[in-house]
Amino acid sequence: MKTAATVDVPLRWLEDARPDLSVGGVSCGVPLACGAVADTAKLAVVDSAGTPVPAQTWPLATWPDGSVKWAGIALGAGREPADGYRVVVRDRGGAEDSADRVTVTALEDGFEVDTGACRVGVPDNGHDIVRSMRVGGAEVAVSGRLVSSRQDHPEPDVRGRACAVGHVTGCVVEQDGPLRAVLRVDGIHRDEAGDGREWLPFTVRLVFAAGAPTFRLIHSFVWDGDPERDFLSSLGLRFTVPLRADPHDRHVRLAGADGGFLREAVRGLTGLRRDPGAEVRAAQIEGRATPPPPNWAGSVADLARWIPCWGDYSLRQLTANGYTIHKRTAADRPWIDVAQGTRADGLAYVGDTSGGLAVGLTGFWQSHPTGLDVRDADSDAATLTTWLWSPDAAPMDLRFYHDGLGQENYADQLDALEITYEDYEPGFGTAHGIGRTHELTVTPFAATPPVDELARIAGATAVRPQLVPTPQALHAAGVMGDWDLPDRADPRRAALEDRLDFMLDYYIGQVDQRSWYGFWNFGDVMHAYDADRHTWRYDVGGYAWDNSELSPDLWLWTSFLRTGRADVFRLAERMTRHTGDVDVYHSGPWQGLGTRHNVQHWGCSAKQLRISTPAYRRCHYFLTGDEHTRDLMLELRDSDTTFLSIDPTRKVRQDAATYQPERHALAVGLGTDWSALAATWLADWEITGNERSRDRLIGTMSDIGALPHGFFTGEALYDLDAGRFDTARDRVNVSHLSAVFGLVEVCSELVSLIDSGQIEAPGFREAWLQYCRLYLASPDEQRAELGVAPSGIHLEQAHSRLAAYASDRTGDDALAERAWEAYFKGGEFMGDAFRAVRILPPEVLSPVDETRSLYTNDAAQCGLATIQNLALIGDQLGIAPKGPDEIVRRQEGT
User: Where are the domains of the chain?
Assistant: First the structure.
């Protein structure tokens, strides 16, 4: 067992610059070696000079022996951040030394949170998520609630809209300080009129940091309507802001693009025919209290009653590239154009000299159609609404995009699959049960703040400060599979690193060039490219949105672990948010299952665990401690029950005429199905200590080891009640997809647990090594060991990492040579995929870069194979065929 003294984990700022921690503090996760730390209270944080820093610590995951595997770390907002930190073990932690503390006090009907900079009341029932906010002794905002509307038709008008308000059904404290507090609020939207229909269940987390006036609000909802009759026409978060000052001392601030702000007063004193004086004008522009009206020059005080009050302001971001701002004097008066721009930063403020409120939305323009509203700023109480779906946009239309085209049976559907790659089935293209998450910042003020302070908050809302362990620390911890740090000393390795960089840069650039934005789309990438139209195949069946096909999530996260690149982290995080929420069902008949790639994220009839797998979420949770991502993984703990309701291979099953899902004999694939179950059980066990998940994980591992042909069996019969496989099945059946949805990564972790003596699963290690050795072996070698040569051997480059793993574990250089040979044959469609060409109008709408033969399938698997091969057999590149030398010659132009 390692001693506690070995713990020394360096942390760096993701963007390599000290951020402003006053906007909500920061939290992150750090990996720890097995046996090194039994209690996170022993952990402490020191800055680069070795000075202890107040910190809050808690376990995110544990090793099988009960020691801490990942620890959560939180810093408050009360001090200047250091350039970097280290997590070490001390006799005493540093949290009790903090002058700033956040406290949570239980009340009869909820809680009060005091950060030292503000006090926030959070009820446990009723319409309000936030009852009140106080700064000092003044109440500056009240009644924070969710609002929505829907209609029964998709046309963009307001006929028959039913308005609803979020109704809180419960509130629990998940963390109560001293530096970080988290409250979880659950509820559902309830119609204000009619029969009081309830729909759109939601979860809101309020995250507070000691010393911070700003707190984070993380809102997730599940869409549980009928796509044919429920068209969501607005969804927003609304606060009421009491106003006490005269209209000329009331202020509205709206963030535009690139840090710019609209600064206006409800009753303006600038630009008038009569000048009130420079001090009056300057005070109003800056948001300070103006001098008393008797001191105004030019008779302005006497004439002020003729100056109209502008009580309503609206900013609308209906596309990714354009926003508009309007204002009006009253609800029955017209809107007046104020400004137009490109990509608003998504923050609004309303208040006066006695207090005010700012709310910002992360991903504001990227998640369009969004909006910001200030209403009734000329009254005693204004409202500030942040629209997650703008009421001025066309209603949300989630109907399936075509009528089925006459596909009435499996034969028709498989035939259609041959032309559009779309796996259609009547009734399966429904959005009922999918979800969406937004992150907001909420900041109460004692008075209207300087605009540069609002700009600072808007910047931290758009790009949240994030601490992360260095790549060196992550690598030393041996976490998340087989990878190593970039090494360019050898030109051949450097050439492969250039491949990796090219693909990452290309996809990061494609997001903006192709405008992969929007409420339901932001975070995903497309599957395949159409070189004739110079566009991704956004409208061609299964070639459109990728939905985690062949593990781009794992590619991005593994790339981040080894490089530490901020742009890769941000793309991976957005993908985790999207694929975990939108591409997975959280309620309804397919709860726990994800949806294969399609024109719409929910459109394909293939509902499978390979998309919902926690293998795609664990890295985000461990690096950030994000509670919502934890929820997404833990809600899957009983996902093995889905095999009772739907057979993933029902359309192609050879025994389809006789197979019926039976509780004690469910057909479960040992590739895409079991890898997802194993990742689920592993995540649940390490996060919660659930012994049921532990037993199912280790039990099925042992059963795979006991099967006559191990992983080559392809599919085994699963007893749902016992959580075990029938080990009598004796057959050989291989799918080229089995290993490319996280199986490689989860098996690597599980074998490491076996090798280190932390778990026992007889035969599992040998079964996995056999699969890795034989998948790319010659037919004769396969027949000699399996009795037959399996069909279905494809994706050779992707599977080169299996041979590499076997080579590393057995020391067999022939397997390394086989791995590199398969790798340099290239991916399924890659061709010359590592060179982009600029396409210009009029061939396209706007200039774009294209790599005609690069599919996301190949990009993800090529990326993972490159990373893992370099880690496992990188020192044997010299035995590879001419591939690496050819790459170097191309780059050198020889």
Answer: 4-97, 103-241, 637-794
